[in-house]
Amino acid sequence: MSELIITDLKANVGEKQILKGVNLTVRSGEVHAVMGPNGSGKSTLSHVITGKPGYTVTGGSVTLDGVDLLSLPAWKRARAGLFLAMQYPTEVPGVSLEALLTASATEAGRDAGAVKAAIAAEAERIGLAEALIHRPLNGDLSGGEKKRNETVQLGVLEPKIAILDEIDSGLDVDAMRAVTRRIEEETNNADAPLGVLAITHYKRLFEELEPDHVHVFAQGIIQTSGGAELAEELEKTGYAEWVSNDEPEEDDLGTFDPFSDTTFADRLNLHEG
Ligand code: ADP
Ligand code: MG
Known about the structure:
single chain; 8 helices; 27% strand; globular; binds adenosine-5'-diphosphate; binds magnesium ion
């Protein structure tokens, strides 16, 4: 049984405070949904927990099975059992998925042959074309292929706790079903059930993946928590209740979702008329 404990976590980007005291505990087998408006700090939360550079932690703690994650570099956090499926998976020219996973898993003491077999099995299971295992990581992949790719990594690396940052963005219904079904299976894995922190805007993520807890995240903190019914409610009401009226909503050009319904041109006001 594993436990990720986030206590009063505060973090800045430059001078600006983004995380304002986040408290959340994710245990093996549990699925926690974190839902909130654009620009509220959800990706920042995932980055601070996993150790992406560029953020300053100003208070609080994050532990995984008692290990202080915030004092470790990102790779040691991964070694401790933490996994991040990125909102915008990074393209890595010259490094294939197979090379990445083989290096990562053999360095952790696993047999290279067994890892290669596991990669092939996971790719087949999730519907990722075999050729993509050998191509540069995420290079010229579609949205669906990128997120399948992330899910293969999750399946092979077998983390204790996975953070999924909008794994539903850019997915068609088939990819969505394949990805969420695979992750749900891991949360029910009898030997080592996966704990999940799933960041999303949409309850469609939860058709296959069943949330045990739903948290509304806005203005840098968890505003309220509930069960799966809260996701239904949010789909109807939106987040207006938790977004301050005095502060204009962030212009989140820096964090926009290129896969959302709004087009590039709309966001940039380049459309005609
Ligand atoms: P969300 O994922 O909820 O949409 P983010 O965590 O991406 O929100 O962003 C939260 C706020 O922090 C936004 O106002 C965003 O512009 C700002 N921010 C995030 N990362 C950076 C960065 N590297 N530099 C400057 N501002 C940033
Ligand atoms: Mg985000």
